[in-house]
Design goal:
The complex is a heterodimer of chains A (264) and B (372).
Chain A (H helix, E strand, L loop, with lengths): L11 E12 L2 E12 L3 E5 L6 H8 L7 E6 L2 E2 L5 H6 L2 E3 L12 H7 L9 H6 L2 H20 L15 H14 L4 E5 L7 H18 L2 E5 L3 H7 L2 E6 L2 E6 L1 H6 L1 H9 L3
Parallel strand pairs in A: 3-8, 3-9, 6-7, 7-8
Antiparallel strand pairs in A: 1-2, 1-4, 4-5, 9-10
Helix pairs in contact in A: 3-6, 5-6
Chain B lengths: L1 H31 L6 H16 L6 H24 L14 H20 L6 H24 L7 H23 L14 E4 L8 E4 H23 L1 H11 L1 H6 L4 H27 L8 H12 L4 H30 L7 H16 L14
The structure holds adenosine-5'-triphosphate and magnesium ion.
Chain lengths: 264, 372
């Protein structure tokens, strides 16, 4: 069990209001509402194909729900593209790792600083003073993340050559480099062994504790979910079938049925 | 031996041009997965714009006013973006949302008026070259906004068809705008012959100074691009987009902006190719066929490899010249009668076919492994 943690969970950061999303005939999400509070760890669970990833994709602007609305930091969003969501402080990782395979760990994480860099294209083309100073400053921030995630030894390795578990860690590093307010993690521990999972849990909780970053994660490992999350949303066939603190969810009969009904 | 070297050097310098055009292809292909058939047409357009702005024989006052306005608007927007940073997101209703429009219109008016005052005289090179670049930037903007963006997520073949359309449009429209004759481009590069290595060979080897300066210009461009892509944030963003679209967007890189940048850079590369080629043979419609020679270069070099485009271009340029010159000699030796030349027209394509058969990933491409 996790040690008692001292954090403040604040007001609502993001509200998803009755969104529906379909692809042709396939209904990925139907009339789903929930909210995420500032500073909490919010989990989304559900059987395969339940619409969990689609939910994250709506939040960061990859998908645009046909109905419903998303309110972020008290502003109702109009249709937003992913880079705009990123500019508003939403960072994420992907279910199927999406790293820049040809680049080193360092460069990958550095891309996460993209939005924090301000010098314009001309200054960069000439590569003069301010642009260089900025590069150094961001390099330091990246080094701190590398240290935090304990991946100093692979700093220069092209990520395509890293084992799966480490790739996931680098991807987390890239998301952290943006210093996001809301961090979306799509199955951050999938395919990991127990030890790697424990490390990942520790990183997630540390990020949440130390930087107050709000986290919304999708995870299949129930032990992990119940352990680290403050509240859980359960989706099944694109509909919300449960929402509450882990203890409530564990006792929710609809949820139990949904999980027994599918084979894993 | 001296003669062989002369042939080789001549060939290498033709190769430089192939490399430049192939480079434009590679940049766009890497960033957007679009096979940009219009690269050759862009060389033509850049060349025509430059030569006419520099020594007008076809265009008139209103062309200057138009290009002046356009260039000033482009420069204004660039300055705005530099000052404000790329990620400024104004809230709805904030007047600053309209800042780009205000700057573009204001700078455009100013540029137009200045050009009007200047009259229909040719511009000095320091003005004509940036203006030609501005024209290419405008092309990039139009292509991104009205072709690529609406067709995003379509099949590769559809995008390819779209670039075919763009090719013919640019070909035709640039001739409507800037004339369709052969225009000699004389920007002050010496055309005198010179002798190299006189100490090594008797009489030395004869080369044209123009070829040398062309090689140097291309080399400087390539080095500049290498620094830009390796060392800057935009360069890193571009490599990120080339690797993974979704991930790039998730860290806040706008795909459309990157596409606009690479098309602009491809436009600049096209302008350099036009300068090098046009100084030698004049700016003319046949420039657009350079695109056809870039195809075998890409097959040799690999579609996504910048060094591949450069080496491939040089190999094909040198190879076809050497083959052209020595084919009759070799056939005479083998069969007793010298077969006439004409090898240079098909050499590149046969070489490309051989590559397709034996090394389809090209010289530098990664090995293609089919995953089942
Ligand atoms: N881009 C898309 N195009 C078409 N259908 C899609 C797309 N994305 C998701 N879907 C469909 O939407 C439904 C929900 O998919 P989603 O990936 O959100 O599920 P998930 O809960 O993340 O599942 P898993 O646990 O397997 O990751 C599925 O039926 C899927 O096929
Ligand atoms: Mg999923």
């Amino acid at each position: 069990m996790s040690a008692p943690r001292t954090r403040t969970i604040g007001d609502t950061l993001l509200t998803v209001d009755r969104i529906s999303l379909s692809f042709g005939g396939v209904k990925a999400l139907t009339d789903v509402s929930f909210d995420i509070a500032k500073g909490e760890v919010r989990a989304i669970i559900g059987p395969n194909g339940a619409g969990k990833s689609s939910m994250l994709n709506c939040i960061n602007g990859f998908y645009h729900p046909q109905q419903g609305s998303i309110t972020y930091k008290s502003v109702k969003r109009s249709q937003m593209r992913p880079h705009e969501a990123a500019a508003q402080g939403i960072a994420r990782t992907f279910q199927n790792i999406a790293l820049f395979k040809g680049m080193s760990t360092l460069d990958n994480i550095m891309t996460g600083r993209n939005l924090r860099m301000k010098t314009g294209i001309l200054a960069q083309a000439l590569h003069f003073g301010p642009a260089r100073a900025e590069e150094i400053e961001h390099r330091l921030a990246v080094e701190r993340i590398i240290e935090f995630l304990e991946i100093e030894h692979i700093r220069k390795t092209p990520v395509g050559r890293l084992p799966y578990g480490l790739q996931k860690r680098v991807e987390l590093g890239r998301a952290l480099a943006a210093e996001p307010e809301l961090l979306l993690l799509d199955e951050p521990m999938a395919g990991m062994n127990i030890e790697e999972k424990q490390d990942m849990c520790r990183f997630i909780l540390d990020v949440n504790d130390e930087f107050g970053t709000t986290i919304c994660l999708i995870e299949h490992d129930m032990g992990v979910v119940m352990d680290i999350s403050d509240r859980v949303v359960v989706l099944d066939y694109g509909k919300k079938i449960g929402d509450g603190v882990p203890d409530e969810i564990k006792r929710n009969q609809t949820v139990i049925d949904a999980y027994l009904g599918v084979s894993h | 031996m001296a003669f062989f070297l002369e042939v080789l050097i001549g060939g290498l310098l033709t190769g430089v041009l192939y490399s430049l055009v192939a480079l434009g292809f590679v940049l766009i292909f890497k960033a957007s997965g679009v096979f940009n058939f219009a690269q050759g047409a862009m060389v033509l357009m850049a060349g025509l714009a430059l030569v006419q702005l520099f020594e007008p024989t076809y265009i008139g006052l209103w062309h200057f006013v138009g290009v002046g306005a356009l260039s000033a608007a482009v420069v204004g927007l660039l300055v705005l973006r530099t000052v404000r940073g790329g990620t400024f997101a104004a809230a709805k209703g904030d007047w600053r949302i309209h800042l780009p429009k205000i700057v573009a219109v204001g700078a455009g008016l100013l540029g137009g008026v200045l050009a009007l005052a200047g009259g229909a005289k040719g511009w000095p090179l320091w003005l004509a070259i940036p203006a030609a670049i501005a024209v290419m930037v405008a092309v990039a903007w139009v292509v991104e906004r009205w072709v690529l963006r609406p067709l995003v997520n379509q099949e590769g073949i559809i995008l390819f068809m779209a670039t075919l359309g763009v090719t013919f449009f640019i070909d035709g429209f640039s001739q409507t705008l800037f004339g369709s004759n052969v225009y000699p481009l004389n920007i002050g590069l010496s055309k005198d012959p010179m002798f190299l290595l006189e100490g090594v060979f008797e009489g030395g080897i004869l080369v044209n100074k123009l070829d040398i300066s062309g090689g140097v210009i291309a080399g400087v461009l390539v080095a500049g691009l290498a620094v830009f892509f390796q060392k800057t944030r935009i360069g890193r963003a571009l490599r990120a987009v080339a690797d993974d679209h979704a991930a790039a967007q998730s860290v806040g890189i706008p795909l459309n902006w990157i596409w606009f940048i690479v098309w602009s850079v491809a436009g600049v590369v096209a302008l350099v190719a036009a300068i090098v080629w046009g100084s030698k043979l004049g700016i003319q419609f046949s420039l657009t066929f350079l695109a056809l020679k870039a195809l075998p270069v890409l097959i040799l070099g690999g579609f996504t490899s910048v060094p591949g485009a450069i080496v491939g271009g040089l190999l094909i340029g040198a190879g076809e010249k050497v083959a052209e010159v020595y084919f009759p000699v070799v056939t005479k030796f083998l069969t007793g009668t010298a077969m006439p030349g004409g090898v240079e027209y098909w050499f590149a394509y046969v070489l490309a076919l051989l590559f397709l058969l034996f090394r389809p990933q090209g010289l530098f491409g990664e090995r293609i492994i089919e995953r089942v």
